[in-house]
Amino acid sequence: MDKNKTNEVIEVLNKIMEYELSGVVRYTHYALMITGRDRISLAQFFKDQASESLLHAQEAGEIVTGLEGHPSVKISIIEESNKHSTIDLLNESSNHEKEAVALYKLLLDIVKDESIYIEEYARGMIKAEEMHAIEVTKMLKDFAES
After folding, report:
1. 3-state secondary structure 95-127
2. What predicted TM-score, i.e. pTM, was given to this entire model?
3. Is the model's pLDDT at 50 over the cut of 50?
4. 71 and 64 in contact (C-beta within 8 Å)?
5. What residue ranges define each of the domains in the chain, with the CATH number in brackets?
């Protein structure tokens, strides 16, 4: 990749890091706030999501440093809705996953035919985030109006 393309990739990877790190905070908050009959299973789900978000941020950072860039120390802005019902938290989670997919797709578009490694990384992350979105959609079916 040329220098300009590399800088563009680093910029997007840093946005991904910031977004994934915000996911750590977001999902930790959700795990703490969830109540009701499904609290135990959903709290664990959100804790697992927080751990996975941290791993995703670390993976993006490793690529940044591999490209001789400097990893961001910021996190994306997290909007606090102050809505903590199960359905609200799951809907917010679904939206978070969709936005993550968009970031990884942006990365994929930039590196297409430039770096097989980063292309495959982006495809794998898109797959993982889409799978999360599917799981959340399935969980939300309990709350669909009949």
Report:
1. HHHHHHHHHHHHHHHHHCCCCHHHHHHHHHHHH
2. 0.93
3. yes
4. yes
5. 3-141 (1.20.1260.10)
